[in-house]
Protein: 3-methyl-2-oxobutanoate hydroxymethyltransferase
Amino acid sequence: MMACMSQASAPKRVRIRHFQAAKAAGERITALTSYDAMTAAVFDEAGIDVLLVGDSAATTVLGETSTLPVTVDELIPMARSVARGVSRALVVADLPFGSYERGPEQALDTAVRFMKEAGVQAVKLEGGVRSHATIKRIVEAGIPVMAHIGYTPQSEHGLGGHVVQGRGDSAERVRADARAVQDAGAFSVVLEMVPAVLAAEITRELAIPTIGIGAGAECDGQILVWTDAMGLGTGRVPRFVRKYADLRTTLLDAASAYRDEVKSGAFPSAAESFEDQTS
Structure:
C-alpha cells in the first residue's frame, strides 16, 4: 500500500518532477478540480497537490448538461483565477472539446494560450493512441501534458454514455492507450472509470504516475470534481464519489436564515449599522 504525501515531505511548489518522485517513493498524489481563486486558495492551504481547471466547469459552473459546450475563452478566465489563488499546487487546465481535435498544431496553439493567458503549469487532454502525436507535439514545445484515458467525457456519445472502459476484450485497448501517452511524453495519466484490477496493473506497468477517478485504490493518486466531493451539486452522484461534506445543505440553510432575518427585520441590527456622527 502506498503512503500518503505528508505535509512535511511536500514540496513548497509542486512541479512535474515531483510526480515521478512521488511514484518512486510510494507517496500518493492528491488532486481536485477548481474553477476560481477562492476555492483554489482553500484547497491549496489544505495541501492538495494538483488543481485541475476541468472542462467539468461546463456542468458545475455554467449549467450545461455535458462538458462539450465549454470553450477555451470560457475556461481561460477560470484557469487564470485558479493560478492566482495558489502558491503551492500544480495548476492544470483542460483543453476543451473542439480545441485540439484538428491535430497537433491546433492543440499546441490552444495549449500556448492557456500557458500565456492563464498562467497554468500544464494542460490535460483526452485520448490515448489517437492523441499520441498531439501529446508529443505539445511536450516537444516545452508544455507538460497530463493525459486522460479510459472513460473520456468529451467522447461520451461515441462511447455510448457513461460506460466503464476496459472490461473484457477492451482491456488491451486501454493498456495500449496508457503505453501510447507515456511514450508520447505525458508526465501523468488520468484513468477514469476503469476496472480496479486493470488500473492497478497499468499503474505497475507504467513509469509515469496514474491518477484515478473511478479506477480503484491502487492508482498513484486520486482526483474528484470538488462539487461532487463536497456535496454542493445536485442530481446523480457517480458511484466512485465519496462525499466529504454537505455544503449544499449548509449553504441552503444559511441563505434561508438570511432571508428570514431580512424579512423579519432582525438583520441588520444596531451593531451592524452606522451611527450619525454629524452632531
